[in-house]
């Protein structure tokens, strides 16, 4: 880890004003995100061979938060309504999600995981969790909890 000092060793190039810590963060996040996208694609295909990578995140959100409107999902993921509609239609066609009337507004519908979708997703999620357990076996549980806390904090600040 970078040690702070009183000089300019914490800066990138003279006059740039960019902290090395933020450059390191950007670099590590880029690697992490690239790997996460690839793994999400693998996980989505394990749920169903015809799924695109973005589908795995939809499963995570619907399993965690329960039924939601398509517009809420689009907002959560920062994608357009048309993109979300297309993704949900593909999941519906495969029988992995379903739409039910929204009790608060009969004109709208709530998207939910079907039993088949939930079962397939949880099986893959549990296998993924086991991979994390193996990869982080030499980490202290407090370090794992701290990483989760920091990622949550970062994600909350990244919303909206």
Give your account of this protein's structure.
There is one protein chain. The chain has 160 residues and is mainly alpha-helical. Helix content is 62%, strand content 9%. The protein is built from six helices and two strands; from the N terminus they run ααααββαα. It has helices spanning 20-47, 54-65, 70-77, 81-93, 115-135, 141-158; strands at residues 97-102, 105-113. Strands 1-2 form a two-stranded antiparallel sheet. The longest helix is centred in the first third of the chain and has 28 residues, at 20-47.
Short structural description:
The protein is mostly helical.
Question: Which helices and strands occur, and which strands form pairs?
Answer:
Blueprint: H1 20-47, H2 54-65, H3 70-77, H4 81-93, E1 97-102, E2 105-113, H5 115-135, H6 141-158
Antiparallel strand pairs: 1-2
Helix pairs in contact: 1-2, 1-5, 3-4
Strand content: 5-15%
Q: Identify low-pLDDT runs.
A: 1-12
What radius of gyration results from the CA coordinates? 20 Å
Helix content: 55-70%
Strand order of the largest sheet: 1-2
Secondary-structure element order, N to C: HHHHEEHH
Tertiary shape: globular
Judged by helices, strands and strand pairing, the structural class is mainly alpha
- Mean pLDDT across every amino acid position: 87
Instruction: Specify the biggest β-sheet.
Output: 2 strands, antiparallel
How far apart the termini lie comes to: 30 Å
Count of DSSP E strands? 2
Number of helices: 6
